[in-house]
Amino acid sequence: MSSEIVIKVEGLSKCYQIYDQPRDRLKQFFFPRLQRMVTLTPRQYYREFWALKEVSFEVRKGESVGILGRNGSGKSTLLQMIAGTLFPTSGLVETKGRITALLELGAGFNPEFTGRENVFLNLALQGFCEEQIKEKFNAVAQFADIGRFIDQPVKTYSSGMYARLAFSAAIHTEPEVLIVDEILAVGDAPFQQKCINHLYKMLDDGLSVLMVSHDAYQIRSICSRALLLQRGEQVLFDSSDKAMDAYIGNNIEEVASNALMQPFQDNIKTDLKVDSCNTASVFLVSIHDPILISNNLSGVSELRSRGPVDLVFTYRIHGNYEENISFVVNIYREDGVYVFGTTTKMQGLPEFHPASCGRVRVHFPSFPLVSGQYKFRVAVNDGRGLNILAEAVPVCHVSVRDDFKSVGLVDIEHQWSHEAITTDEVKPI
Fold first, then answer.
1. Which of 163, 217, 243, 409 has the fewest CB atoms within 10 Å around its CB?
2. Rounded to 5 degrees, what are φ and ψ at 5?
3. Residue in 33, 28, 16 with CA at minimum distance from that of residue 74
């Protein structure tokens, strides 16, 4: 394997034996052997289920690679085999350097051991000597920030404390390759941002990353290449743009509803109301008063297609959050069809330093949607756009009216022309 390759997968497959009844497992153990002894063709008492079949790709040093596919397509199976927690049926996995897998936080922690003892054991299993472990322990404990509970059995921890310690222990092993199954949401909002910032630093330091995500924005902003799986088989391994386009084009997942940032559902975060956006206990930022302004009229609920419109909202910082921020806007039809989405980062704008309170304005000089009912989503993300600090959904319900010059979703500017030609110029399709 080349020195520039940190993960190499060739023809990797995983097959499970599915038994319809418990006694079939016992039959499979004895009967085929007896049948061979009497020169009969052995009978198979199970069905084969191929969770993964003939997958091949590689990850270069310092590269971030995404894995795409619907639930059940084999993504987690692939990650487990690369991490070494699952053995393949056939194929080859080669890795170079220390690998940290954020698949199931706290896997391997002994509930009877204290937090300190579990961290020491975790680091020892990663190959660190006693002196290195003692040095790293202070960093782990400081990052987890669970105070004196570090010397209590982890079975007494809350789920949040357990996740904090497990995540801190995992990321302080100095990995050369990080395997992530979805972007993690660990603990409360300040700790989540702390985790995201640490991951940013690791990425900037040239860490190789293999990550699973359904999010187009995350895949395109973090990963240079992506692997697309469907029913356990490899569809393609190409640039993240091409892989995501294929993922969306094949309608493998309900990408129309979650192609940017987070899935849009009217029932998520229902505490984010327009008139009482009380998110201080959950988020670091809260969003207030989103309205539409058109032709000097504020709070409009009806627009003319291709007319100008501004979306305006205010935000408020809670606590001591001082990191840079970015902004998001999404448009959906009332039936949930995803119409449009963008962020200040996607538009190439610099990260914004947060004020204690601020006002954001998105100006659409020409609103090209055709007649219909629409709604908006607005959000405040961290500066690099991966962590949602606050969102408000759905807001600014609006009815769009047009002159019936087009149908569909968008009235695209165009021109028609016509000219007479000879029959010789007419070519069959």
1. 409
2. -105, 125
3. 16
The rounded distance, in Å, linking the Cα atoms of 152 and 350 is: 45
Q: What CATH code is carried by the domain that includes residue 358?
A: 2.70.50.60
Q: Is 125 left (phi over 0), alpha (psi -120 to 50) or beta?
A: alpha
CA distance 56 to 68: 14
- 36 in any annotated domain: no
236 in any annotated domain:
yes
Tell whether 239 and 108 lie within a shared domain: yes
Q: Is 283 left (phi over 0), alpha (psi -120 to 50) or beta?
A: beta
Same domain flag for 249 and 291: no
Pairing of strands 338-343, 388-401: unpaired
For 363-400, write each residue's pLDDT tens digit: 999 999 999 999 999 999 989 888 888 899 999 999 99
Q: Determine the residue type at 223.
A: C
Domains held by the chain: number? 2
**Does one domain contain both 252 and 289?**
no
Angle at which helices 159-171 and 130-144 pack, to 10 degrees? 140
In a domain, 273, yes or no: no
DSSP 131: H
Predicted TM-score (pTM) of the model is 0.73
Residue-averaged pLDDT of the chain = 85
Instruction: Write down the pLDDT at residue 125.
Output: 86
| Helix (H/G/I), strand (E/B), else coil: 180 | strand
Q: Which residue matches tokens 């505490």?
A: 271
pLDDT tens for 123-174 read 998 889 989 999 899 999 999 989 999 999 999 998 888 888 988 988 888 8
Higher pLDDT, 223 or 216: 223
Q: Which residues contact 24 (CB under 8 A, 6 or more apart)?
A: 45, 46
85 token code pair: 């927690």
Q: Which of helix, strand or coil describes residue 224?
A: coil
First to last CA, the chain: 50
The span from the CA of 302 to the CA of 244, in Å, is: 34
Q: Which domain holds residue 160?
A: 60-258
Mean pLDDT of 108-112: 87
In a domain, residue 271? The reply is: no
Q: Over 60: is that where the pLDDT of 327 sits?
A: yes
Same domain, 312 and 200: no
